[in-house]
């Protein structure tokens, strides 16, 4: 549903901002677009993660891990058998699945940002977020009210923000993603750890009914976009 989330959340959010006479510019469009996919950062196979971590990065990381394992084995010969144990553990990690490897990349990036965050607050916040997302189950905390509030709060605190549209758009796009997930057979848990699940069960991913519901939602989104941005255009003057 990655592309559907991108189209629906971005289209609905920008349309509502336009109808509410809120400012819309390139940075706001960028934030709205990213926010439409952000809840799925805890899913290694999501559109956002696939685009952010291409296969070449995974291959490079596997090669580096194998190189580290060989180096530990050779350079740590004076610490036998511990060098062999450590090198074998590193070697095993280099052969984990692509899904797990993506989680590892997210975790490593988060740790790196957290270390930098000792002197840069926003790097620390981003690093902590990535670490939590790499360890959290899919549709966990990122698919909750906490995720919406946290993301909108971060955007509202950014320096030199252009207008309230930045955090309004980001928060609304994030929330729209969750509303889309709420109509699936899996649903969402808006207030973990409380076992309250919102699920309308109107569609299932990969099913015919799911495909039909997706197309209907996308069609309604295009109608809303037309109503917000195009209905007042005098088409006769364009031809």
TrEMBL record:
One of its GO terms (molecular function) is hydrolase activity. The chain crosses the membrane at residues 56-75, 81-98, 105-125, 145-162, 212-229. It comes from the Bacteria. Keywords: Hydrolase, Membrane, Transmembrane, Transmembrane helix. This is Metal-dependent hydrolase.
């Amino acid at each position: 549903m990655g592309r559907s989330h991108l189209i629906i959340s971005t289209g609905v959010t920008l349309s509502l901002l336009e109808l509410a006479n809120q400012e819309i510019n390139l940075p706001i469009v960028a934030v709205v677009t990213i926010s439409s996919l952000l809840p799925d950062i805890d899913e290694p196979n999501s559109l956002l993660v696939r685009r952010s971590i291409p296969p070449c990065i995974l291959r490079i990381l596997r090669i580096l891990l194998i190189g580290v394992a060989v180096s530990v084995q050779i350079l740590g010969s004076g610490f036998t058998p511990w060098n062999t144990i450590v090198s074998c553990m590193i070697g095993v990690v280099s052969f984990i699945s692509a899904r797990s490897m993506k989680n590892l990349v997210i975790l490593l990036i988060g740790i790196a940002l957290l270390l930098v965050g000792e002197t840069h607050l926003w790097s620390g916040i981003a690093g902590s977020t990535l670490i939590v997302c790499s360890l959290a189950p899919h549709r966990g905390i990122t698919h909750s009210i906490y995720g919406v509030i946290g993301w909108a709060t971060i955007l509202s605190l950014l320096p030199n923000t252009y207008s309230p549209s930045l955090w309004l758009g980001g928060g609304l796009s994030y929330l729209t993603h969750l509303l889309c997930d709420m109509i699936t057979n899996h649903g969402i848990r808006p207030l973990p750890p409380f076992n309250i699940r919102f699920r309308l069960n109107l569609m299932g991913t990969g099913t015919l009914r799911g495909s039909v519901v997706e197309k209907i939602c996308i069609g309604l989104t295009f109608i809303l976009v037309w109503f917000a941005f195009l209905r007042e255009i005098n088409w006769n003057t364009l031809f």
